């Protein structure tokens, strides 16, 4: 990173440094940030609350194909591929919420597999809303929320079009999943039968960790059928009983960890393979 780069106004930074980013956030860094910068993955900012740190990555506006092509192995019928345009950039956490962050906000730890740097799990969608409301009450400037399903898949794919963000196949060196059941006739690999620390395995090309596997991640949307036509800034159905977890988990087969796979469950459902990742609203 060039000397002094992060402390310069965005207009000056654009003039002195050309990089992959073409659309910057309106304000960077924001006043709440405890630290910030730019690396090979892009822009990032972090907050620190009572000694616990959470970083966020900048995702530019863009257009991508959401869902899976008809020839993708192990696809499901609700993954209809369609064009999605996100007109606004957004910040998304580089990891799922850790047990350390959950505990410092909520005062307890419901997780089955204990560890400060492991993801908090046994979290329902309703629990995520309670956490977000409490966190925003303490630090309103953060404007925390869950990502929409479209934001989640856009960030997970990180410009990829393959079943996984790095290609057509994966193993337990990349994803924490049930390695006894690999994807698409792949070779069996390790089955850990528990969560791992949120940064233990490699990140994607946008600096986001374990969007495949480890724990399911709740999204804001209700579950519903995809449209066949292109859509702009989708928010999901206006009604419905189920909410959307994405990404698969340590206990699921390889095919469930694909970028396009869609989970759905009751908003009160909680188990030791489901957690969440924060995003920031406008």
Counting DSSP H or I runs of 4 or more residues, the number of helices is 4
The number of E-state strands comes to: 12
What's the gyration radius in Å?
Answer: 18 Å
Structural class, from secondary structure content? alpha+beta
How does this model look, in words?
By secondary structure, the protein is α+β, with helices and mostly antiparallel strands. The chain has helices at residues 10-16, 99-106, 125-138, 149-157, and strands at 35-39, 42-49, 52-59, 62-66, 82-86, 90-93, 144-145, 216-222, 231-232, 243-246, 274-276, 279-280. The strands form three sheets. Strands 1-2-3-6-12-7 form a six-stranded antiparallel beta sheet. A three-stranded mixed beta sheet has the order 4-5-9, with helices on one face. The longest helix is centred in the middle third of the chain and has 14 residues, at 125-138. 41% of the residues are buried.
